[in-house]
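Late entry, written up from scratch paper. The run itself happened at the end of the previous shift, but nothing got recorded in the book at the time, so transcribing now.
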Amino acid sequence: MIRKLRKKFIAISMLSLFAVLFFIISTSTALSYYQLIQEADDTLKTLQENNGAFPKGTHLFRSPELPFESRYFSVQLTNQGNLIAADTNQIAAIDRNTAISYAENILASDKVQGFVGTYRYAVQDLAEGKRIIFLDCSRSFYHFQNFFITSLVIATLGMAAVLILIILFSKRIVQPVAESYEKQKRFITDAGHEIKTPLAIIRADADVLEMDLENNEWISDIKEQTRKLTDLTNDLISLSRMDEEQLPQQLSNFSLSQLAEESVHSFQAMAVSQKKNFQVQIAPNLTLHGDPKMLARLLSILLDNALKYCPAQGEIDFMLTRHGKSARLELTNSATNIQSSELPHLFDRFYRTDQSRNSQTGGYGIGLSIANSIVMAHKGKISASTKDGNSLTMTVTLPLL
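Output as recorded:
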C-alpha cells in the first residue's frame, strides 16, 4: 500500500508538472507563431500599398533595416491568369518561372492569403487583374523552430530533474503515513493474536459446559459468536499480512482448472439444498504459478459470496476460460437492486450493501477485500459489474504460466 501511495504521488506530481509545462509551451508557441504571421502580414500590407516595393524613408518602418532584410517577389496576372509582370529582383532563391507557377496555383485556388512553403503571400486586386506578393519567412521560421525545440529540450530536462528529486524526496514525504500504517498493521496483528487466546478459552469452556448441559441454546449461541469472532480475527490478520502485495512464499505450478473443479464441487451441494441453479463451465489445462492455498481461498470467498447473496430459485454461473495469456473467471449470480454506484466500493474493507446487513447473510464486508489482496498478490485484476441491476458479475484475470 505504501509503495502504491508513493507511486501515485510521483505520478500525480509529474502529470501536474507536465500539464503546466504543456500549457506554457503551447501558449508561448502559439503566440510566437501569431506574431510571426502578424509581422509578415504587416510587411505585405506595406508592399501592397506601394505597388510591390518598399517606400523611401526609414521612419515608415518598425525597423530601419526592414527593406534591406526582407526578401520578396511579386507576380501580376490578369483575372484569366495571363501574365502581366513578374518581379524577382529582390530574391535569389526564386526564379521567374517558379514565381509565375506559384502565382498561377494561388489564383486557381481562390485564396487571398496563406503560405507556399516558407513564403507568406497576399493577393491584391487591381483594375487590370491581380498582384500576388510573396514574402520570404524562412528566417522567422528558423527562429520559431529553434525556440520550440529549445523549449521542449528545457522542459524535458526540467521534468527529468524534477522526477529525480521527487523520487528522492517522496520516501521522506510519505514516511509519516508509512509509520502510521505500520503501527496500524502491527496493532491489528498483535491484537489479533492476543484476542485468539481468550476466544480459544471461551470456546473450550463452552465445550465443557455443553457436555454437562446438552442442547442448551445459550451455549450454542456463545460457540457460534466465538466462531465468528475467530474468523474475523483471522481475516484481519490475513489482510494485514497481504497489504504490501508481496507474493506468498509457497509458490508452485499447479492446475487452476482442477482447483476450480474441487472448489465448485463443495458448493454445488449447498446450491441444490438452497434451491439455486448452479451452472459450471471450466476450461481444461489452465496452469498457474502461485500459491494454491491462497487461490483456493479466493475461489471459496467468491463462491460463498455468490451463494450467500443469490435469492432462492436464482441463477449462479461459474465460467473459467482462457483469455489470451490469462485465465479469466466470471462468476455471475442473481441479485436484487444492485446499484452501479456501489460497485467500486465492494472491495473496500467492511463495506456491505444495505441489503446484506441482516442476520441471514451475516458477514463483515471483509471477504472481497481479502479476495482483492490475493488477486493483486498474483499480479491479476478483479472487478465487479452488473448489466441490469438484477445480477452481479465478479471478473478475475490471472496470468497463466
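DSSP finds nine helices and twelve strands in the chain.
(Scratch paper discarded after transcription.)
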